[in-house]
Amino acid sequence: VIVKQANEITSKINDGKGTAGKLVNDPKLYEGLVETTANLNATVKDLQRLVQQWEQEGVSLKLQ
């Protein structure tokens, strides 16, 4: 039963079905996710620097 299910899952992935199948078979989707993650990381670093600058200049922030 487990082997049969594993084969069915593998077949769906190979056919590009479901999230895993799309990630495995669509390089543009994967590359887009990698690029988005890199951009998000850069944005977080920029925000951290900005908050640090504000703190050094005496600007107080209250985030809720």
Structure characterization notes:
- By secondary structure, the protein is mostly helical.
- Helix content is 81%, strand content 0%.
- It is built from three helices and no strands.
- The model has no long low-confidence stretch (mean pLDDT 91).
Offer a quick outline of the entry.
This protein is mostly helical and 64 residues long. It is 81% helix and 0% strand.
Structural class based on helices, strands and sheet pairing: mainly alpha
Assign a percent range to the helix content: over 70%
The coarse overall form would be elongated
Distance between the termini: 50 Å
Mean pLDDT: 91
* SSE topology string: HHH
Assembly type: single chain
User: Which percent range describes the beta-strand content?
Assistant: under 5%
Global Rg:
21 Å
Tell me the number of strands.
Answer: 0
* Biggest pleated sheet: none
Low-confidence sequence ranges: none
Count of DSSP helices?
A: 3
